[in-house]
Structures are given as structure tokens and as C-alpha cells.
């Protein structure tokens, strides 16, 4: 099956940030086989022609750190200090999670991701008390691409710890290449403060034996830095390095508090960073210095975190916030310009989570792309300034169609793979069963 | 004509932040005459019953500082330093503005404002080369409420200066009570750096004689502080105080750089601040300390500035950014909680621009309100956390219906007072005539 998409402006987000104003893209076997100027000679041998009516086409957005299973907790406890928020709101409710709640929550979150243009996500979920196989089965049916990783904590008893490792190992083996490679998994120790050294070393082993990466929260708050220094006499990055974490391909979520030495170390080990600007503000963590991180050479992706600390999955808002914050803290509007910002949410974000095969419209990449119809949207006028609008004016629900692996999952703003009405109804019903 | 609105959750944004879950609101002669619990006894003598189908109802949002006539410049020159941006992009294009461009630009901006829930705005526009009467006539037809003020600069020649004052005086007299009070105007000297003391004193005189307020940009950048100190040996706030500006009801836009003494002075004189968080970030100005300003007692409204430095008029995004930034800079998630943030965009914002008669759903206030239908929106689930979602998850185009003076101006997301298709087409055509 060979499909050609015509009559659109293709924002390739390749290294040169090329745009093909009246472009053409050909997709075969889930991959892009041609992208460029409109060329009638390429229309031979085509099974299907899709006229995109002058829309803008972008690679699908990449959300490099989320917790979709927590979507039902949106708005449960805002404006609270981290400790009482976790201890009196989030954890007590998470403990009540059933497989049904986790599945519905994940579908609700992915519904929002898909409809706002996210085609690839990298997620951590707490497997306690739920049937992970069922949850990932439901996620697979949505059509989204990504890595769905079980969070690993240190446990109070050795027996529990052993059981957790065993489950992590089983899950990793089973899902590292799932749904024809569309879904994968990483080993996800929660953080240097919630995992003891033994746990972290075991995580490295599981990651190594299964040839997968590591996804971990690091250097999110000043409190964390102090706690790790108190426990181990070194800061979190050095602590993880000593334990061998960085021997695996690693993506750290947050990295709000990093010094020059740490940035250099991350670059040396090829560690990537998932930057969560809104969550970092909302929880009062602070503002990460992404300009310095990029200047050091570290690959940075953009991420929403969970909607309990965001509170939506709108990646357009997230990229915009990332760009605005760097300009603000540097007092320099030339920092973090449009094309850089958009590349972190697409091509470079995909690289950051080890999925180089998506994130830009280039030959041999997966056909993961989104369309926007700007013609009837007053906030995207004048049309001629399209690139600017994509960063500074667009919002998630400007997205019209979404394709993953060349398959349409959202059409004219309606999700084709999730029953929207059912998921919303179930989510509200299940939320009613949780006591907070 | 007496209309009752039933079957809705009314977020009154009154001082107590009352919500009437299954509430009722009665509107007569453009004003609210009842708001509270559903009461069948109040249904006597009603001309029209409107069933809102369970939607959320909020007061219309108040944008306390904008430049709608610049809307056509959206996306023209991002990521640039302020000086080259103004000198090579904005000013050269503004000089080419005709009355037609100004009118279309204003309509495009107001179209976006209305559709995203802004019912009241306070605006500054550059009258050079355009017929201000025609522009305000077009604005009046949109149904929006607000203050539309001519920006006054110091001129190079005395003759030009005299003509400008004469025009400012004429405009102020004519429009201080226009469209049955729905539109008004203020005297708007651009800033302490673009107006010499003589100009500022003359502005005070015009404001005093016409009994209107003053709207002025102040303390936006560190460079401005230095420039005023160099010229006058005092910082901008003291400079304006000495010239008598604060004897008039005054709203200053920005106020990014204020010290304790200045905050106390603003409070003492009852000066209000229009806070533009996104514009201040995007232009690299910095982050205003709004928590301190509020603690001092100063009234603060939220504002977008022009879309050349924002780049949209989405007030939901603006309030959210305001709240997130204060939490981030204070590293404290309890700062700037939901209800405070929403009140600055509604009741307190209206007070900030001297329009206490709107901004909340209370008896005797103007019937300016908006509705949101959360039921089909995945990012507003679970429904039970409505207050949180209004600040942290909603976006402008979640707005369904908009009423001003009890008159419906947006219905189901379609603007009834502006021909959307025509304005968008004209805007693009006219943008094409500008050389940049």
C-alpha cells in the first residue's frame, strides 16, 4: 500500500528545518519513502492519493516524560507543598487504583495526547495492584507509539523487593519489542531518593541483559540534592554515575538543578534530559537552565509530566512555555528560538528517548505526522507567519488529523481508536469511587 | 426583557468565590438582578428561559492591557532583541498602517478575544495615519466592552505635539462615554521614556479635565530604569509621581522592575498594575514579582499585551502562566492559588481598569459572562475538579457562549458580531500589502 499526501505545507523538522510549501509525501509500509516538492512523476504506482487541502503538516510531537495512568488525578490537590500533596492526596488515591482505573486513566490521557498531536510518549507507571499486561494491551489499541515503563521503588522487605525485580524483568522482556515495535519499555527506577543503591544496580543489570534504556527522575528539587548529599556525600548525578546507571542509554526526567560539572558529565555519558517546564513551575521546583544544557551538547526533549502537576498534555503549550522561560531567565529574546524549540518537541525529543526512527518527516522515518488547518483559526493569522504560530500561538486542539505508522488515529479532531464518550463517562464514574 | 439562565454551575468570582452548582441567574436591562441557587419562585414574570445544559458559567475575562490594532503583526519578528525588533520590524510596518488595516487588525484581534472568553479589554493604539473614529466605530460593532485609548508620544516638533494633544483631547471627550457606556477611553502617554515631562503633564491635564484615568507602560525593562535614572536622577515610578500622574486613577502596564519602596508608593496612590507575564518573558524583559505586589495591597490585572509579543489573546493561558511563574520563582506551589489567579482575570482585573461594574456574577453587575461545556472535553476530566481545570487545564477555545451586556456575541464557538471568514480573508490580503 503506497499513499501519497499532496497539497500541504510540510514542516519536515529535519536538520535543515526544511519546509516544502506545496509539498508531497509518500508513505509505504508505515514509513516515509518520499518527502519533497510536489512531483507529478512520483504519482505512478500510487494506491491512494490524499489531498490535505492546504493544511500544515508536522511530525507528530514527542512527549518524553509522562504518567498517563495518573490522568484520573488531574486537579486533585493543586497549590500544595510536595510532601503533603504526595502523602495526603496522590499516594492514598494511587493505592486505591484497580486495573480498570489504570486502563481508563491511561486511555483518557492518551486520548488527550493523540488529539493534541502527540504521537510518541515515554511513560512511567506504578504497577502496584494492577495488571500491567491489561493496561499495556489497552494502550496498544490506541495506536500510540512509545515506551511504557514500570516504576521501580525500593521496598521495605527483601521478599517484596525480589518480587518487584522479578516482575520488572518479566515486563521488560515481554514488552521491549511489542506491537510490532510500536511499543517498547525501559527500566525505570523512580529516583535516587526512592531507590537504594542495591535497587539501582539491579536496574542496570535488567536493562543491560535486555538491552533497553533507563528512565529515571533526577535532580528535580533542591531538597533532593540535599538529601542525596546527606546520604551519600555526593550529588545525585555523581551518585548515579558511580552506580553504573549511565553505562546504559539513560534519559533523566527534570534535571532542574545541575551545575557545569554535572552538565559536562551528562554530555560525556550521552545522558538525555526530559525537560518538564510546567510541572517544575507548578510544584515550585524551579526553572531548569536548558540553554546551558544544550550548549554543553546534551540532547533535551520536552515533556508534560503527569496531569496531576501540569494539568494537561498539550505539548504546544509545553514547548511554548519552555521557550518563554529561557528567554525570561536569560533576559534575552534571542535564546531558544522557534526552530530550536520545535525541534526539541520532535526530532531531538525522539532522539532523547532513543527513537530516532520518528520525530521528523524524512525518508525511512516512521510515518508519524499531524495536520493543522489554519484557514479558519483567527489566532493563526496572518497565515504567512506559520513557523512562528506553531510555537507561539498554536494550541493542542488546533490539530486536525493524526497519523502513526501511516495509520490515521485522529481524523478532523475525532479519535478513531478510542471511544471518547465511553472513556470520559467511565473516567468520571471511576473517579467517584476514589476517596481522597 | 427579563431572561433567566438555568441548569448550570455558576462560578461567581465574587469575594467569597461562591459557586452555585445547580444555580440560576436572572438578567434584566443588561444587568444581573439575581444570582444564586435555583429558585422556582423566581420564574414568575420571566420573558425567556435559557437552559444552559449543565455548562460552567464564569464572568467574562478581563484583559487589562492590549494593542489590538497590531494584531496583523502577529509573528512578524520573534526571537529578536527589543531595539532591532521595534526599529526594523514593528515600527516600519506600523508606519504603513491605513485605517482599513487598523480596523481589520482590531476586528481580527477582538474576534479572537471574544471567542476565547474575553469580554472586557483595555487597549492602547497608535493613531498616526489612521481615522480613529472609524476604528472605534468598527470596535463598537463587535459588542466588546472596554477602554480604547490613543497612545501619546512626545513629538519632534512643537506643532506636531500641539496637534497630537488636540486630537487626544477631542478623542477623550468624544469616547469617554461611548456606545451607552460600553466603550470608554483613558489618556495613554506611551511611557516615561517616550514622553517628556511636558507631555506627561499635559496628559494629566487632559485626564483631569475629562475625568478619565491614565494608562501607561512603566518599568518594563531594566534598560528603561537606567535610562530614566540617567535622564532624571530618579526611577520611573518616582518620576511619574513627581509629575502628578498618580493624582489620576492610573493603571501601569508591566511593572516588572519594582522595589519595595515603589510597591508601597503604588499602593499609597491606588495605582493598579496590568501584569503581562508572557510578553515579559518573550521580549526577555523578566518576571514581575506579583506576589509581593499583591501583598503590598496593589490591585493587579492580567493582560496579554499585543500578539506581536505573545502571540495570542488566550487569557486562560495568560492566567495559568502568571500563576505558574510565581510558584516557580518563589519555589513554593502554595503561592498564587487557583481562586486568586482567576479573580485577577475577572473581578480584580475589572477593578484594576476602573470597571468595577463587570468582572463577577453579582447582582447589579453587567451581564458579561461566558460558558464552557466540559462534558465532551477530555482535558477537563474528571469533571468534579472544575475549579482546578479552569486555571490549570482549560484553553481559550473551550469557551462555548459569550454574553456582554446580556447580549450573546458568541454562540457555540461562532462569533455573531464579526464575519469571521471575511475578517480572516481581509487580514491576509492586507498583510500582503505590508513590506517588512
What features would you describe in this structure?
Two copies of one chain form a homodimer. Chain A has helices at 82-95, 99-115, 132-142, 158-175, 197-209, 222-232, 236-242, 260-268, 277-282, 290-296, 315-330, 338-344, 347-352, 386-392, 420-433, and strands spanning 2-11, 19-20, 23-28, 31-37, 48-59, 61-66, 118-125, 145-152, 183-184, 188-189, 214-218, 250-254, 272-275, 300-302, 369-372, 399-404, 407-411, 414-415. With 436 residues, chain A is α/β, with parallel strands linked by helices. Chain A has two domains: 2-59 and 359-415, Roll (Urease, subunit C, domain 1), CATH 2.30.40.10; 61-352, Metal-dependent hydrolases (TIM Barrel, Alpha-Beta Barrel), CATH 3.20.20. In chain A, strands 1, 2, 3, 4, 5, 15, 16, 17 and 18 form a nine-stranded mixed sheet that branches. In chain A, strands 6, 7, 8, 9 and 10 form a five-stranded parallel sheet that branches. Chain A has a four-stranded parallel sheet with strand order 11-12-13-14. In chain A, β3 (23-28) and β4 (31-37) form a beta hairpin. Chain A is globular and about 65 Å long. The N and C termini of chain A lie far apart (51 Å). The model of chain A has no long low-confidence stretch (mean pLDDT 97). At the A-B interface, α2, α9, α11, α14 and α15 of A face α2, α9, α11, α14 and α15 of B. Chains A, B: Zn(2+) binds at residues 65, 67, 217, 305. Chains A, B: It comes from Alteribacillus bidgolensis. Chains A, B: Residues 56-409 form the Amidohydrolase-related domain.
Amino acid at each position: 500500500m503506497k499513499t501519497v499526501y499532496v497539497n500541504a505545507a510540510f514542516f519536515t523538522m529535519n536538520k535543515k528545518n526544511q519546509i516544502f510549501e506545496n509539498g508531497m509525501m509518500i508513505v509505504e509500509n508505515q514509513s516515509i519513502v518520499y518527502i519533497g516538492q510536489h512531483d507529478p512523476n512520483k504519482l505512478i504506482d500510487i494506491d491512494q492519493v490524499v489531498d490535505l487541502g492546504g493544511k500544515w503538516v508536522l511530525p507528530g510531537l514527542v512527549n518524553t516524560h509522562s504518567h498517563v495512568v495518573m490522568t484520573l488525578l488531574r486537579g486533585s490537590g493543586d497549590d500544595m507543598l510536595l510532601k503533603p500533596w504526595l502523602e495526603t492526596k496522590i499516594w492514598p488515591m494511587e493505592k486505591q487504583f484497580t486495573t480498570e482505573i489504570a486502563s481508563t486513566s491511561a486511555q483518557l490521557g492518551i486520548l488527550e495526547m493523540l488529539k493534541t498531536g502527540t504521537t510518541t510518549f515515554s511513560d512511567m507507571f506504578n504497577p502496584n495492584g494492577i495488571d500491567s499486561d491489561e493496561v499495556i494491551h489497552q494502550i496498544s489499541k490506541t495506536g500510540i507509539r512509545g515506551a511504557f515503563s514500570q516504576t521501580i521503588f525500593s521496598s521495605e522487605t527483601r521478599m517484596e523487593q525480589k518480587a518487584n525485580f522479578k516482575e520488572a524483568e518479566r515486563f521488560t522482556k515481554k514488552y521491549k519489542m511489542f506491537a510490532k515495535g510500536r511499543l517498547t519499555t525501559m527500566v525505570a527506577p523512580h529516583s535516587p531518593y526512592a531507590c537504594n543503591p542495591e535497587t539501582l544496580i539491579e536496574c542496570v543489570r535488567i536493562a543491560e541483559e535486555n538491552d533497553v534504556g533507563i528512565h529515571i527522575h533526577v535532580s528535580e528539587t533542591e531538597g533532593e540534592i540535599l538529601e542525596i548529599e546527606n546520604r551519600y556525600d555526593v550529588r545525585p548525578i555523581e551518585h548515579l554515575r558511580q552506580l553504573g546507571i549511565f553505562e546504559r542509554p539513560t534519559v533523566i526526567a527534570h534535571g532542574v538543578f545541575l551545575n557545569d560539572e554535572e552538565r559536562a558529565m551528562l554530555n560525556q555519558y550521552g545522558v538525555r534530559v526530559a525537560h518538564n517546564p510546567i510541572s517544575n513551575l507548578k510544584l515550585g521546583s524551579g526553572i531548569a537552565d536548558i540553554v546551558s544544557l544544550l550548549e554543553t551538547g546534551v540532547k533535551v526533549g520536552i515533556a508534560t509530566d503527569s496531569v496531576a502537576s501540569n494539568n494537561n498534555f498539550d505539548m504546544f503549550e509545553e514547548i511554548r512555555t519552555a521557550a518563554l522561560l529561557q528567554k525570561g531567565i536569560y533576559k534575552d529574546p534571542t535564546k531558544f528560538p522557534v526552530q530550536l524549540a520545535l525541534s526539541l518537541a520532535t526530532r531531538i525529543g525522539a532522539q532523547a528517548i532513543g527513537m530516532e526512527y520518528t520525530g521528523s518527516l524524512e525518508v525511512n522515518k516512521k510515518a508519524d505526522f499531524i495536520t493543522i488547518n489554519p484557514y479558519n483559526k483567527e489566532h493563526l493569522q496572518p497565515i504567512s507567519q506559520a513557523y512562528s504560530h506553531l510555537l507561539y500561538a498554536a494550541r493542542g486542539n488546533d490539530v486536525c488529523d493524526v497519523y502513526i505508522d501511516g495509520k490515521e488515529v485522529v481524523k478532523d479532531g475525532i479519535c478513531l481508536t478510542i471511544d471518547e464518550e465511553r472513556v470520559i463517562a467511565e473516567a468520571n464514574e471511576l473517579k467517584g469511587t476514589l476517596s481522597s
